Here is the input.
Amino acid sequence: MNREVCVIIAAKNAAQTIGRAVASALEQPETNEVVVVDDGSSDATGEAARAADDGSARLSVHRFDMNRGPAAARNHAIAVSRSPLLGVLDADDFLLPGRFERLLAERDWDFIADNIAFVDEARAEEARYEITEIAPQPRLLDLEGFVEGNISRRGVRRGEIGFLKPLIRRDFLDRFALRYKEGLRLGEDYDLYARALTNGARYKIIHSCGYGAVVRGNSLSGSHRTEDLRRLYEADRAILAEPGLSPAQRALIARHERHIRARYELRHFLDVKREQGIGRAFLYAATHPTAVPAIAGGIFFDKTARFRRKAEEPAALGGTGTIRYLLPSSKASP
Here is the structure.
């Protein structure tokens, strides 16, 4: 198969991990380009990325002088690349051998994603060779399944569909003028995929595992600002303002908007309490009665968290040092 994939890596202060990510992308025979965008790093991210070059002239490294966020970095990579297929790789993650071969064996898709293995940073190198061989079980993901997979429930661990890292056909993005929303620093992937699905994208999933996600306590994706939540639910509102949505599509996006807005209301209440005092926080709640259920439910859950934490922590990765898979899996037949 001809090389036809551009691997996009947005990186900020990732000097310790970017080399592994770049090397894993260049190891894929189908990789035609690897475009790294150094998003205003204060460390040697760019130099570390170049040090992983294999001499095949497939790697290019670009730099923003100021941090602009992952959406802007990915859009820049799309603009400067030329390959018909685009694949996103986070700077602290890695691709497993044969990933693109398995994905490209499937037909009839605009987006295609595979399973994700979550591994501890300390075991990332050896875990690459311990991934279970999983049957592909290909299926199409519709808007309902996608939105459902992006709505969390307190105390219930679920597969976070928004974490999937699909290959994307450039011509589909171009046909519908789709790019990442650069104002988003949380949920930029969710927003792009949701807009694609409302435009009729065929989003295929296989359960075979080709992507390794490294779990790190200081991961940038593990933290977000209250403002990020507000921008995300406003992105849902922008989708809802688009003409041509079916009633079912409108109901699904509205459901996600309410979910994110509830998280925002709790965070905003706590911000007001911390910065202006409990009196001002309760005044905010009193003048925003629709926010009260989210605030009350969130506070109750937080106050009772210590009773659950001891039982939940060992299962965070399926047990210390073990590999957890995002999608349910069954072993492939020998």
Observations:
- Strands lie at 5-11, 31-39, 59-64, 85-88, 94-95, 111-120, 139-141, 167-169, 203-215, 324-325.
- Residues 311-320 have pLDDT under 50 and may be disordered.
- The chain has two domains: 5-223, 226-303.
- Residues 5-223 form a domain with the Spore Coat Polysaccharide Biosynthesis Protein SpsA; Chain A fold (CATH 3.90.550.10).
